[in-house]
Prior knowledge:
Distance between the termini: 63 Å
Oligomer: single chain
Number of strands: 16
Helix content: 10-25%
Amino acid sequence: MNRRFCLSLLVLVCGLFPWGSLVAEAPPPTQIVLLSDIHLGTEVIRRGLSEFRTNENFQRCVDEILKREPCPDAVIILGDIAERHSLEVYQLAAKMWQPILDAGIPLYIMGGNHDSPARMFQAIPALEKQTEVPGKIACRISFPQADFYLLETTDYSNGMLGKLYEDQRKWLLETLPQSGDKPIFLLGHHPLDVMRELPDFSTLPNFQAWIYGHTHIPSLRKTPQGWLLVNVPSTAFDNQKISGLGYFILTLNGEDFSLEKVFLLESHPENGTVETFPYRKTPGILW
């Protein structure tokens, strides 16, 4: 077999079986918008001597999300939908975020200490179909690169504190094996330092981050174990003059994920900044 024939055969084989067909293509990046503490109301919100136009801020966020290119793959709101929970406020909320759904973007909602899941279910029947724990707002979202677990964390005996309810804990333990070796993100309304009866999340396999709201102070912190604490900003109230109102964009890639900070004040020094983190790959144990 001469050299010219070998080269011709190689070209023919490559043409019939291109290398791209032999290797699974990596899924495109998944982009998720994270909002929290939108505190909608049927009138201007007043706290102390200050007035806050929370509805206008949220509307601006919706408008910005719809203009993003590429279009986000999902939007998650981490609780405190209402300032004062009522059917009217939740009906207003559903009307305000309807354009997101109309654009074909999946929307996931969580409750916070200002919310009432029962009234949310009453006002937004589709929300009750989304949950996997009866009476709570909890579900698993499976993206190509990672799985997200949304948990209701409000302790209704003291709303400023959080807890992981036993029925959610049981559901989480039963559902986590479905994630296999995929990276895992857990999301709740409260920061871990105000959570009671808290399991050790750091032992979970491939655990990446606890993502939460509540404080209205955006931050990214890495724990000594290497996983992240992601505090999503509020769109309603600014608890620090420099913290800013806004939201985060989380992008899932094949080997890492990134977080972009987006602030409504465009001159904010961290507006548009992006941090990238490799996935943690740990065997872990279940509680």
